[in-house]
Amino acid sequence: AICGHGCKYGECMGPNKCKCFPGFTGKTCNQDLNECGLKPRPCEHRCMNTHGSYKCYCLNGYMLLPDGTCASSRTCAMVNCQYGCEEVKGEVQCLCPSGGLQLGPNRRTCIDIDECSTGKALCSYNRRCVNTFGSYYCKCQLGYELKYVSGHYDCVDVNECVTHAHSCNIHAECLNTEGSFKCKCKQGYRGNGFDCT
């Protein structure tokens, strides 16, 4: 089976037919599926969509059970947690619905961890890290775009000279470089390529 546009998070099952891995959707399986919007809802109380998955959490005063349901808990109500709580060895601890969140100084509310600045993010050399609430994603570096090349997705250099996304003078030549471009004044003109006289 050949899928001309590829299947980013899935497998090619027939001519341009992708079977997406759980948590993904779209013709080329390149979109995250928002499980929180599905019917029936996957969580009893609150749901947080994550890349390729989701996390359940409970209203204040409830405890999250392993099956995603919420049980009323007097101890949780007393602690006043933002995202529900769990009891560990008789001790009540507030929960954060994602590994990209951590308990704040008050031990009740959750604050975001900036994986991009802490160095926890894993992005390949040609991608840059973008922090989100509770997570992060890797985006192509400036001057590169995501393209399907020889069987997989990769960040490929944008040729600004072809796409006319350059700011060279009309009397200058545009020279494409990896991730950028250069301008050189044409013969008979002097300048830096952006200003030619």
TrEMBL record:
Gene3D superfamilies from the UniProt entry: Laminin (2.10.25.10)
Listed name of the protein: EGFL6 protein
Compartmental location: Secreted, Extracellular space, Extracellular matrix
GO molecular function term, any single one: calcium ion binding
Pfam family, one: EGF_CA
Main location: secreted
Biological process terms in GO annotation: cell adhesion; cell differentiation
Family statement: Belongs to the nephronectin family.
PANTHER family documented for this protein: EPIDERMAL GROWTH FACTOR-LIKE PROTEIN 6 (PTHR24050:SF24), PA14 DOMAIN-CONTAINING PROTEIN (PTHR24050)
Keywords recorded for this protein, A-Z: Calcium, Cell adhesion, Developmental protein, Differentiation, Disulfide bond, EGF-like domain, Extracellular matrix, Repeat, Secreted, Signal
Positions of the EGF-like domain: 32-71, 112-150, 157-195
